[in-house]
Amino acid sequence: MQLQVARIGKPHGIRGEVTVQVLTDAPGDRFVPGTQLTVEPASAGPLTVLSARWNKDILLLAFEEIETRNQAETLRGAKLFIETEELDEDDDEGWYEHELVGLDVRVGDKVVGKVSGLNTLPVQDLLVVTATDGKEILIPFVEQIVPEVNVGEKFVLVTPPPGLFEINAEETGEAAGSAETGDNA
Q1: Fewer CB within a 10 Å sphere, N or C end of the chain?
Q2: pTM here?
Q3: Are both 157 and 119 inside the same structural domain?
Q4: Residue 48: what pLDDT?
Q5: What is the largest CA-CA distance in the chain?
């Protein structure tokens, strides 16, 4: 199975370097020169890392196959993957996005939605949940709110604080309604 480790952003400079959104906790291990990465869309790859360097907080990658800014521009938005067998199988401290997407989200025994993504942020991760009514809800991925992840039985147990599921509804529904009617109450 493949694990997404980055998403390519805009070109940097004229020699084919690109900025990347890092989606791995070990960029120093994943982007070593000579590492071959699978690319989505497949027509853009595979790509072999030529160099990796930091420019402030942004990782810049150069690939053996890309020599110009114009070539780099064609990679914008492409996803970079590695094979998961390259990963440490003893790591049980967390989950990868591909393991979580599609799991039912339960509050008690009631299914309230499905995990549709994982936003990895510096302070804490957020589960992206598509609720049964189709609304997107962001849930802090912390033990107090998400006490159980059961990949085998395909569910995530959530103990949301009061109002967590209503916050998005208020912002998109009621706020939009009062803006349309002109109510300022």
Answers
A1: C
A2: 0.50
A3: yes
A4: 92
A5: 61
123 and 50 co-located in one domain: no
CB burial class (10 A; 0-12, 13-18, 19+) of residue 185?
Answer: exposed
**pLDDT range class, residue 99, cuts 50, 70, 90:** confident
Q: Which of 42, 59, 86 is the last residue of a domain?
A: 86
Residue position matching structure tokens 């049964």: 132
Give me the mean pLDDT over the 151-159 stretch: 88
Amino acid, res. 102: G
Half-sphere exposure of 132 (CA within 13 A, CB side): 7
Tally of domains within the chain = 2
Domain range holding 174?
A: 97-178
Radius of gyration of the chain (CA): 20
Q: Which two tokens stand for residue 161?
A: 């604080």
Same domain, 23 and 68: yes
Mean pLDDT of 62-77: 91
Partners of residue 127 on adjacent β-strands: 118, 139
In terms of domains, do 42 and 69 share one? yes
Cβ proximity of 19 and 35 under 8 Å: no
- Give the contacts of 164 (CB within 8 A, at least 6 positions apart): 137, 139, 145
- Partners of 48 in beta bridges: 36
